[in-house]
Amino acid sequence: MKQTTGTHLPGWGERQREVEPIECEVVGSLPPTLEGALYRLGGAWYYPPKFEDDVLLHADGIISMFHIAEGRVTYAARYVETERLVANRVKERMRFGHYRNRFTDDPDVQHLNASAANTTAFVHGGRLFALKEDSLPYLIDPMTLQTSGLYDFAGRAQSKTFTAHPKIDGKTGEMVAFGYQANGNYTKDVHLWTFAPDGSLRHEIRIQVPWLDMIHDMAITENYILLPLGGYNTSEETARAGGPMWRWDPDAPARIGILRRDGDGSDLRWFTGPKTCQLHTFNAWEEGDRIMLDAPFYCGNPFPFLQNTDGSPWSPQYGKAHLRRLHFDLGSSGSEWREERLFEEVIGDLGDVDPRVMGQRHRYCFGAIELHADRSKPAAMWVMPNAYVRFDVEQRQMSVLELGEQYHAGECRFVPREAGAQEGDGWLVGVVTNRATGCGELMIADAQRLEDGPVARALLPFAAAPQVHGFWAPAGSLHLPEGRC
Predict the structure, then answer these.
(1) Would the pLDDT of 164 be above 70?
(2) The whole model's pTM is what?
(3) CB-CB neighbours of 13 under 10 Å
(4) Contact 426, 415 (CB under 8 A)
(5) Residues pairing with 389 in the sheet
(6) What's the rounded Cα separation, in Å, for the pair 24 and 234?
(7) What is the DSSP letter of 316?
(8) What per-residue confidence (pLDDT) applies to 18?
(9) Beta bridge partners of 373
(10) Within a 10 A sphere around the Cβ of 233, how many other Cβ atoms?
């Protein structure tokens, strides 16, 4: 198989091993109160792509977990049994074409759900989901990692899509989510839902957006939902010409929509600002009539495999993200936000905050940076993180855990030390790859003492399955059949 652009990322370029639970060697001391599972989801081609120029965003979903209990760590991994993968196994080849472009699929599979389910492992209401924004979730057994099938929230999510980035309110435990292109590809429909902690539906809003744009992530405050548009566009006419669904539009302004969580959508306001690519968010909160959003915005289109609509070439400058804060004045009639750059360091755009402050003002953001980066190497088109970092956005200070130049750091998750601990007092967990040996490690560090290095590492004798996003599920947070602990 010809290597597609970006497959220098660990594990993305080839079929991965499915692993029944195995015990990891532990170096250091596991925190005695840290029990639960880090669930991870990423993509790895089960069969080579139908087109050699297809993109890594289209690789098959594989879900993995590091389970911590009674002083032991076990690891397991399994491909998500999507409708797509089942259909491909029938003919032992990839039958689905360019990324999210159904016109390029084999005719006999165009009626099937084409999602790769490869973006986010997520837990809510006692259930584990494999999420990708082009489909409803796949329900996953939290112990065996077997796929149960598509899940529509007891028929209440009447949408063809569901975001890969729901948010759980840190105070109420409610899950706020949305699906864009909710009525099918190239529709402007967006459905938004609020689910109770037990997973039942509390509120739904249905809106239409003026533009066919990617809406990858979201943010919430106590009363509002923020929908950042990515800066990409598409159309049925463009898709029929071939290639991936999305094109980067350098001429379109950056846009973020804001609406009330408890409304009907009629209050939706669009704000604009300097052109950036808005893929992921950290957190948002309210200050009187103002909303603040902290997020790692890219300088432009970060994906070299998604073309610019004006034909201009991709630039490595686009792949640089900075932690920024946007200010929205809801009391003003203006439509532009004010922006400030909180740190000058270039960062990876995958990160976390203390889950207990989601929707409220926070002090800390956790993420990853690349120390001693050599921008002359081909891999330098993206940041290749080799250090974890805590950003103190109040003091504008950084604390860094240096892993070493031979490591690649995946997304980290923050785990509170205990329920009543102060914000930021807890553990940072993340999976890193030793590029010298090709092996994976679960890394655990004290989030208040990152400079001291990991307190424990759980070692694999091979590479862990690739990860885009993960989720820490504390012990007891998932529904398990009787007799399963």
Answers:
(1) yes
(2) 0.95
(3) 19
(4) yes
(5) 367, 400
(6) 45
(7) G
(8) 95
(9) none
(10) 18
